[in-house]
Structure of Propionyl-CoA carboxylase beta chain:
Amino acid sequence: MENQQKVKNLIDLRVQAKLGGGEKRIASQHAKGKFTARERLEMLLDEGSFEELDMFVTHRCNNFGLEKEKYLGDGVVTGHGTIDGRTVYVFAQDFTVFGGSLSETMALKICKVMDMAMKMGCPMIGINDSGGARIQEGVTSLAGYAEIFQRNIMASGVIPQISAIFGPCAGGAVYSPALTDFVLMTEDNSYMFVTGPKVVKSVTGEDISTEDLGGADIHSRKSGVSHFKAENEEEGILLIRKLLSYLPSNNLEEAPLFENTDPIVRLDDKLNSIVPDNPNMPYDMKDIIHGIVDNDEFLEVHQHYARNIIVGFARFNGAPTGIVANQPNFLAGVLDCDASRKAARFVRFCDAFNIPVLTLVDVPGFLPGSGQEYAGIISHGAKLMFAYGEATVPKVTVTIRKSYGGAHDVMSCKQLRGDFNYAWPTAEIAVMGAAGAIEVLEGRSISKITDPEEKAAFVSEKVNEYKDKFANPYQAASYGYIDDIIEPRNTRFRVIRAFQALETKKVVNPPKKHNNIPL
Ligand code: HXC
């Protein structure tokens, strides 16, 4: 063959590879409102930056007539490219080839880019759209999954790992995304479950749709498996790009510093009156967050799950920062099992990747009741405490209003190595709320008073006495547990200065194989 012909052959083969499972299947993918693997990567990566690897890999299976059906690339597109100029490694399963099902060779391709990502210290992004283990291959496919899982585990806390679910993700396949840092699903065509509706029906008799069992809404709102829910693939891809802008490429780097256009000393007068006089009245913690961060930009993680706590990324003077904040607007901002787990995982992510944490506190306590006790609120609450206590990144806490009981300790208090702990003058830092406290302290005296008016007057007097003593930040400040009581409208620049003063922080935990966080 002449050399020119060899070049032409290569070009033809590349064209063939780019067609995946063929035009008909591509059309069927588009008809479902889905993009192909290559289209997705093109949208995700900076224009023209994608370098594909292993385009000529084909499967090695001879069962069920598979030896006659081979596609270049074998059901997954892998390689590297850049996002905002920074290198990332990627894979996108190609549903047009055997339904994106995972073969031995597909696993090898995915593992290769995962290994490269680890070696180079770059984020790993996987786009999932797959019918699961390639049934014709049997155990080699299962082994392939396990190879991927092992790499997910080793990469955890070393490079950011992000999973987009743009199609089916079922059976044991769900565990790779679950092992990554962030899972993103789209409103249509995206589902995850360990067993599908048919198996559920045959085993338990439960009749349930795909959507209700493992759609984006369920995993974003109920299970918390998904951190982000996008309306469609385009929005999902933009979200991934945005998320990455807050993250370093690996655990030895700092997150990228942005040029800040928002004045550091930007006083926000409305914050002085945002907390209602009535302590039982809610307000929206997000108004405070938006009031203090750079340019009003906040990327909320787990927006629909455990809404009594807010977690997400923002910037202060250009520096990416994780924010954890109780939300009085939902269940009064109480800490329950889900909120504790949500915040704990977020704090651990930030700590693993050198992202400072700002904690905004307005928490009436842990949610009481048998439901929570049986669900293990003790262990889940301990997770959050553990996460804060082990974190060595800069930690700034601002107590806005309530900070009661065990929840006070958990929410990044001084003794859990909070670096700067500030409070607004509206803060109430105490063992419990006034009404509950007086019931415990004066229960016997109250029960002895028979006249209702007299009883009410006595209770009110005691409640006021308690409030005067504890419903304020001054007792905590008198012990140095609160470093300063700040005017609400000054919060932005006080927080920025605090983080600036913490830039050189170095704290190292005692050497150990690993800790034993209460799971
Ligand atoms: C081989 C598969 C496949 C699979 C789909 N295909 N899944 N081939 N192994 N697992 C092929 C189909 O034969 C079909 O080929 C093409 O992909 C598209 O599939 P359709 O069924 O036509 O598409 P659709 O109607 O959209 O349905 C998608 C689907 C369905 C819901 C994913 O294909 C399905 O239920 N697949 C099986 C899912 C499953 O049970 N997987 C195993 C899970 S257990 P043609 O040639 O017609 O285009 C598992 C264990 C992992 O994954 C363990 C890890 C520890």
User: Anything to note?
Assistant: The chain has three domains: 3-245, 269-432+471-501, 434-470. The radius of gyration is 27 Å.
